[in-house]
Specification:
Blueprint lengths: L4 E7 L7 H12 L3 E7 L5 H10 L4 E4 L4 H7 L2 E2 L1 H6 L4 E5 L2 E5 L2 H12 L8 E5 L3 H12 L4 E5 L3 H11 L5 E3 L21 E4 L22 E4 L8 H9 L3 E4 L1 H16 L6 H6 L14
Parallel strand pairs: 1-2, 1-3, 4-6, 7-8, 7-10, 8-9, 10-11, 11-12
Antiparallel strand pairs: 3-5, 5-6
Bound molecules: NADPH dihydro-nicotinamide-adenine-dinucleotide phosphate.
The site of NADPH dihydro-nicotinamide-adenine-dinucleotide phosphate has 29 residues, from α5, α6 and α9.
Length: 292
């Protein structure tokens, strides 16, 4: 029997995942005796692989695309935030039961506010996308006190559905269905645009730019792409060209949501700064001017 606590990330086509590297750094820094692997499984095999992993003594799993909704269905118990999101990215064995949580939103908010100095309170936010990632971040953004959260999605009905689902938590609306896409429009002004635009679509993974309403970008706009890669995503490239004050990719969110999962499993909160630096995520940013 393996005496080291076992963890892993489970997803489909995730050979590129940075999670094993991130958790190995966390474990080393906090002196936790654990191992963290990678389970690349297609959707039909998901529940069997998860059940076998925990039956054989596994302690926790990070769940990624496309299994987050399936993990939500599989969990015996859910935190309120995972329940709200309808998606689980962290599974833990607790008293023989499968406990599900969602740390994506907390990871994004921490990256934005702590690492990047972005003030969310009072900010007007445009959220692009209405998939699993969007579901996980709406509630934490509203809790952080944004003054408006507008959802724009390729299929507008999904944006409307999300806005309806979360409207009891704060000022969230769907963008009008008629918003046109812009491709590289550069005219910006000081008083126009959103303070924050979050790309939670998977368009970047296909090298595409999602639909973005006209006049979304101003000189104070902070653009954040949940996707990340070796080079700037199309969205980050576009945002810079459109005049945004700053544009970054989501590697910081990945590290912060991982730290939150690590804390759930081990009861120890790892320092993320050295991991961000080791991954080349970014150097410490200059302070960003507050919205408005
Ligand atoms: P989903 O498949 O659940 O949702 C995809 C979303 O993207 C939908 O809203 C879909 O629109 C939209 N979309 C897909 N292709 C296009 C396109 N070509 N143009 C415009 N819109 C498009 O994916 P997730 O929500 O799970 O993931 C979204 C992104 O977030 C991915 O890039 C993922 O890697 C990233 N992510 C990053 C994390 C991090 O830690 N940095 C954590 C979680 C996710 P429609 O509804 O119209 O089909």
């Amino acid at each position: 029997m393996n005496s080291i606590d076992r963890y892993a990330v489970i997803g489909s086509n995730i050979g590129h995942s940075r999670s094993p590297q991130i958790h190995a750094m966390f474990a080393k820094a906090t002196r936790q005796a654990m191992e963290y692997g990678l389970l690349d499984v297609p959707p039909p095999a998901f529940s069997t692989v998860v059940r076998n992993f925990f039956r054989d003594g596994g302690r926790g799993l990070n769940v990624t695309v496309p299994h987050k909704a399936a993990a939500h269905r599989l969990a015996d118990t859910l935190t309120p935030r995972a329940n709200r999101a309808g998606a689980v990215n962290t599974l833990a064995a607790v008293d023989g039961k499968l406990h599900g949580d969602n740390t994506d939103g907390a990871g994004l908010v921490r990256d934005l506010t702590v690492n990047l100095g972005c003030r969310l309170e009072g900010a007007r936010v445009l959220l692009l996308g209405a998939g699993g990632a969007a579901r996980g971040i709406i509630s934490p953004l509203l809790e952080a006190g944004v003054s408006a959260l507008v959802i724009n999605n390729r299929h507008p009905a999904r944006a409307r559905q999300l806005a309806k689902e979360f409207s009891d938590l704060g000022p969230v609306t769907a963008a009008p269905a008629t918003t046109a896409a812009i491709r590289g429009r550069t005219a910006v002004s000081d008083d126009a645009g959103y303070e924050l635009i979050i790309n939670a679509t998977s368009a970047s993974l296909h090298g595409e730019l999602p639909q973005i309403p006209n006049h979304a970008v101003g000189t104070q706009t902070f653009a954040y792409d949940l996707a990340y890669g070796e080079r700037d995503t199309v969205f980050v490239h576009w945002a810079r060209g459109a005049g945004a004050a700053r544009a970054v990719m989501g590697l910081g969110m990945l590290v912060e949501q991982a730290a939150e999962s690590f804390f759930i499993w081990r009861g120890v909160r790892p320092d993320t700064a050295h991991v961000l630096e080791a991954l080349g995520a970014r150097t410490p940013p200059p302070p960003l001017s507050s919205p408005g």
